[in-house]
């Protein structure tokens, strides 16, 4: 099963990266709805689509407003957006207010429930993350593979409270907005830096780690110091827009 990285920046797009959006085309799953969501149009394979939101900040939800075009003339019968009840209500009340978005939202909202089962066979669990305004992480377990998605949080390394929820996953996708040395900004904005994330992956005994949600002011191919992460957790990769990995 392929995981596509359609947007790998945080806060705002830059010339190299759109904001956070991932897709599992075979399963009809989208993780967050940043500005990269317009790219789902070229990868749709299912008649239903389940979009899981970590939180309601615009760099993770703006893409919902382009769903009409992304789905135009595509055979998608149902789109469900899952997330925290209060966050979903805020999105519908504000982002899709008639003064801002003049037609009905092209999806139904569903407050996330623990142990949700999807048509692809995945069991979905979620857990709280430390981020201004609140955020949630997700874990997807199939019979033969597993994925955890942790974004918009300040990792506390091997003391991170979410470690039990990601333990032993085949693939951990984790935000890493800042490189080491920028910890004050990480704390201020509710994001993570390189070393704590790598330590969290090692402590949770995950099999692979992919870092994403990079600071858009960092425009190099190595925005957070890959060697630093690999010195702690060797099976680390840096995501880029258009990247595809097998789970």
List the helices and strands and how they pair.
Layout: E1 2-7, E2 21-24, E3 29-31, E4 48-52, H1 58-61, H2 67-70, E5 78-83, H3 85-95, E6 108-111, E7 116-117, E8 123-129, E9 135-141, E10 146-150, H4 163-166, E11 171-175, H5 183-189, H6 194-203, E12 209-212, H7 226-232, E13 236-238, E14 244-246
Parallel strand pairs: 3-4, 4-5, 5-6, 10-11, 11-12, 12-13
Antiparallel strand pairs: 1-2, 1-14, 2-3, 7-8, 8-9, 9-10
Helix pairs in contact: 6-7
In a nutshell, what does this entry contain?
With 247 residues, the protein is α/β, with parallel strands linked by helices. Helix content is 19%, strand content 26%.
How would you sum up this structure, described in words?
The protein is 19% helix and 26% strand. With 247 residues, it is α/β, with parallel strands linked by helices. The protein has a single domain, classed as 4-Layer Sandwich (Metallo-beta-lactamase, Chain A), CATH 3.60.15.10. β9 and β10 (146-150) form a beta hairpin. The protein is globular. It starts with a strand and ends with a strand. 46% of the residues are buried. The model has no long low-confidence stretch (mean pLDDT 97).
